[in-house]
Write a structure and sequence with these properties.
The chain is globular. The two termini are about 40 Å apart. The longest helix is centred in the middle third of the chain and has 35 residues. A hairpin with a 3-residue loop joins strand 8 and strand 9. It is built from 10 helices and 14 strands. Helix 1 crosses helix 3 and helix 5 packs antiparallel against helix 6.
């Protein structure tokens, strides 16, 4: 299984100068190739592929004002053309939007294949660098594994990271356990388990909200292209990095715990991109990172031999009574508990939803009912209509 291990490193002055120059050249080549492909289409209705952009790169290196492209390794320049080709392939397949131009303020990255680095005695030597990278080894690579591709990334906050891609042959599947859990994601409680446990939402953005607002106001008052503006931008980027780090750290600990404790995990297939279009809930939903939460569950379930089941997003998990199956007509978001009008059972909204999700997950596992694969439309919905009327989507 291919895995990527990410570490922070601290380059020397010489290494930082070379890496910044490399990332700048990568950004330039990407933008020039994107401009050439866009111009070719709008002016001549012609599609330019990777082979043609690679030939253009050879011509660019011969120009007098672009001689600095020969001072860095050629591998990251070729790799960025391959990444551009992948971006256009995804665009034409409808999986992504049209590629955007790279900006300097967003940092950047450079990818090195085996011909552009050396792995010697557990240290990384990049092309044109005489000294190894000073990597902070927070965890060791699996025994017998060597990196096949190395990606160096500069974040907007000024931090340097290196990602080592390896082919890990070790089997990390855990012993099977006789436990299943349904998960209902939310805002006040990040995750509610079908066991009745509620995991609080750390709300990392709210913790740094006032500090970030103050730093952003300072940034807007600084004169453009000034040194003080660069300092203010760096301060904003560092605060945003703290928010991101705290959020990701919490999600990793939570998903690892859920995968270790349960054999089957059932979640809803939510359309987060559509949900964040609600201006009243967009910030809270983005801070909760539901998409990242499910993504981590997916690949960790594969690593450890667990099963992740996604149910139809239109299943009325909150409005359906877990005791008798009755579905209420309306259930606004401000109603956190309710009584079933059919059997009188009192329900906590989130716990009831998690238990319903688990029950439907077992049905999906056994017979595949109401499963909607990615990119397909739903052919049927597991819901109970009231008085012959069409049930509205889940509130």
């Amino acid at each position: 299984m291919e895995k990527t291990y990410r570490y922070r490193f601290y380059p020397t002055l010489e290494q930082e100068t070379l890496l910044r120059r490399t990332i700048g050249c990568v950004r330039l080549v990407f933008n020039k190739a994107l401009a050439a492909r866009t111009e070719a289409w709008y002016s001549r209705q012609e599609r330019v592929d990777y082979v043609q952009t690679s030939a253009l790169l050879t011509l660019w290196k011969k120009e007098d004002d672009l001689q600095f492209l020969n001072e860095v390794s050629c591998v990251p320049l070729q790799q960025t053309l391959r990444h551009l080709q992948s971006a256009f392939t995804n665009f034409f397949a409808g999986r992504a939007k049209y590629p955007n131009f790279k900006k300097k303020r967003n940092g950047g990255s450079a990818e090195f294949t085996k011909s552009a680095f050396r792995w010697k005695h557990g240290q990384v030597y990049l092309a044109k660098c005489s000294e190894p990278l000073s990597i902070r080894w927070s965890r060791h690579l699996p025994k017998g594994c060597e990196p096949t591709t190395i990606t160096v990334k500069l974040e907007p906050s000024g931090r340097w990271f290196v990602s080592l891609r390896i082919d890990d042959p070790t089997d990390k599947r855990l012993q099977p356990v006789d436990k299943s859990v349904g998960l209902d994601v939310g805002i006040s409680s990040l995750v509610t388990l079908s066991t009745g446990e509620k995991i609080a939402n750390p709300k990392g953005f709210d913790k740094y909200y006032h500090k970030l607002t103050k730093a952003q106001k300072t940034l807007t008052r600084r004169k453009k292209d000034s040194r003080n503006r660069d300092k203010a931008r760096l301060k904003v980027a560092r605060i945003q990095a703290k928010i991101c780090d705290s959020r990701i750290d919490h999600l990793h600990k939570l998903t690892t715990r859920l995968v270790r404790e349960n054999q089957t995990i059932v979640v809803e297939d939510l359309a987060v991109k559509n949900m964040v279009k609600n201006p009243k809930l967009a910030r809270a939903i983005s801070d909760a990172s539901w998409g990242e939460f499910v993504r981590q569950l997916e690949y960790k379930a594969k690593w450890y031999g667990r099963t992740l089941v996604k149910i139809d997003r239109w299943f009325p998990s909150s409005k359906r009574c877990g005791n008798c199956g009755h579905v209420v007509e309306r259930l606004p978001l401000n109603v956190r508990s309710w009584n079933c009008p059919n059997c009188g059972t009192h329900h906590d909204r989130d716990i009831n939803a998690a238990q319903n999700i688990l029950a439907v997950g077992h049905t999906v596992t056994v017979c595949g009912a109401s499963v909607r694969p990615d990119g397909h439309k739903s052919k049927g919905q597991l819901r109970k209509t009231v008085q012959g009327k069409k049930q509205k989507p889940k509130s």
